[in-house]
Amino acid sequence: LQVPGKPVIPFIEGDGIGKDISLPSQKVLDAAVEKAYGNSRKIIWKEVLAGEKAFRETGNYLPDETIEAFREHLIGIKGPLQTPVGEGIRSLNVALRQTLDLFVCLRPVRWFKGVPSPVRFPSLVDMHIFRENTEDIYAGIEYMTGELDAKKFRDFLVNEMGVDKIRFPESSSFGIKPVSKEGSERLIRAAIKYAIQRQLPSVTLVHKGNIMKFTEGAFKIWGYDLAENEFANHTFTWRQFENIKKEKGQMDAEKALNEAKKAGKVIVKDVITDAFLQESLLRPYDHSVIATMNLNGDYISDQLAAMVGGIGISPGANINYKNGYAIFEATHGTAPNIAGTGNANPSSLILSGVMMLEYMGWDEAAEHVYDAMEHTFAKRRVTSDLYAQMEGATLMTTSEFAEEIIKNMH
Ligand code: NAD
C-alpha cells in the first residue's frame, strides 16, 4: 500500500495496561511521522470502543460502530482486550478476526541488541510467523460434557459414523477442528509472497500431519501443491527434493537444491511442530518465514517471542491480504497485575505501530522508530519487565520509556 496524506486510523485503547501504553505509543509514532515527513503526513487517531470501556459506555463489548470504523478506514490498531467471562463471548480478539476475516496473524520475531534473551545467538533470530487466524480448533465449535449437543454429537459419531463408542465415554466433550483447502492456501500463499517480496530464504510449513493426517497433514500437502503450481518459478520444495532423490539419487537432489538457492528461490519445507519448537531454539537461523495453523501458531508465537525478550516487546498484525483490512496489535494480554502502575512495556504496541507504518508504505517513519528503539535498548533504558534481567540498566516508567525513544530519534 501507499497511504497518502493524513489518514484516519481507528484505535482501540484496550483493557488493563491498554490505557497505560496506548497514548505513549501514539506519541512515538506521531513523532516519527513528523520527523520523516514534516507536516505533509499525519495520523488522525480516532478512538473506537471495545472491551470493558465499550461495555461501560454502550452495554456492548464489541459495538457495531467499531467494526464499521475498521471497515471504513481499512487499517487500525488495538491494545489488549480482556476476554469477558461468562458473557457468551469466547474472545473479542477472535470475534474481531472472524468478523473482518483477518486470516493472517503475522508476527515478526527480531532481536534488539542488549535485550536479555535465553538463546545463545539471539542476533541470528529473524523469523516471521504466518499463523492462520480463522480456522482450526479455534473456530469455536465445541460441545461440553453433559449438554444435549455433546450427547447428540456423540450419538451421531457412534450411530452414523460408526465410531467405536468405547472411545467416547458419556462424559466426553468435543471440539471440532475445521481446516479447509481455501483457508490453508490463502495463508500459505501470503507467506510465500511475503518471502519472495522480501527475498527471504525459506518458508517452513509447521504441522502435526504425522498424527492429524487429514487436517494438519492436508495443510502440508496443499502447501507443497501451491508452491509447486502457483510459484513454480520462485520456489523449490523439499517434496521436489525427495522426488529427485528417489528418481535420480542424492547427488542430483543436492545439486537441484543448490541451484535453486543460487537462483534466489524460496525453499519451501515442512517440519513437525514438536521438532520445530526444539529446532527453533537450537538453530533459529534454519527458519525464516513460518506458515502454520491456528493453535500451533499460538504456541509458536509466544515461544519465539520469548527468544527475543518476551511478549512485552513482540509486535503483531491481523491481516486480510485480499481486501487489505489490517489490525495491528500488541501481542500480550491486559496484564491486570501491573495495570495502572507505570510498569507496562509499550514496545509491543509501538512495534505493532511500526508494522502499521510499513504496511502503509511509510517506511521512513517506521525506520525512525526502529532505530530509536535500538538506541534506547543499547543505552539500557528499559521498563521493569526487562530491568531485572539487565545488568546496569536504568528503570523507566511506560511514558518515560516512550519519551526516551522520541529523544533518540535522529
Ligand atoms: P498477559 O499477557 O496479560 O500477562 C502475562 C504476564 O506478562 C503477566 O505477568 C504480565 O504482567 C506480563 N506482561 C504482559 N504484557 C506486558 C507488558 N506490556 N509489559 C510488562 N509486562 C507484561 O496474559 P494473561 O495474564 O494470561 O491474560 C490477561 C488477560 O488478557 C486475559 O483476559 C486474556 O484473555 C487477555 N489476553 C488478551 C490478548 C489480546 O488482546 N491480544 C492476548 C492475550 C491475553
From TrEMBL:
SMART domains assigned to the protein according to its UniProt record, in alphabetical order: Iso_dh (SM01329)
Site, as annotated: Critical for catalysis: 138, 208
Keywords: Glyoxylate bypass, Magnesium, Manganese, Metal-binding, NADP, Oxidoreductase, Tricarboxylic acid cycle
Top-level class of the enzyme under EC nomenclature: oxidoreductase
Cofactor dependency: Mn(2+); Mg(2+)
SUPFAM superfamilies xref list: Isocitrate/Isopropylmalate dehydrogenase-like
Modified residues (N6-succinyllysine): 78, 220
One example GO MF annotation: magnesium ion binding
Record has Metal-binding as a keyword: yes
InterPro entries from the UniProt entry: IsoCit/isopropylmalate_DH_CS, Isocitrate_DH_NADP_dimer_prok, IsoPropMal-DH-like_dom
Sites where the protein binds Mg(2+): 298
Cofactor note: Binds 1 Mg(2+) or Mn(2+) ion per subunit.
Residues given in the record as D-threo-isocitrate binding sites: 91, 93, 97, 107, 131
Binding site for NADP(+): 345
Isopropylmalate dehydrogenase-like domain location: 8-405
EC numbers: 1.1.1.42
Biological process terms in GO annotation: glyoxylate cycle; tricarboxylic acid cycle
Residues the record lists as Phosphoserine modifications: 91
Reactions the enzyme catalyzes: D-threo-isocitrate + NADP(+) = 2-oxoglutarate + CO2 + NADPH
Family from the record: Belongs to the isocitrate and isopropylmalate dehydrogenases family.
Quaternary structure (record): Homodimer.
Protein name: Isocitrate dehydrogenase [NADP]
Native source species: Maribellus comscasis
Lineage: Bacteria, Pseudomonadati, Bacteroidota, Bacteroidia, Marinilabiliales
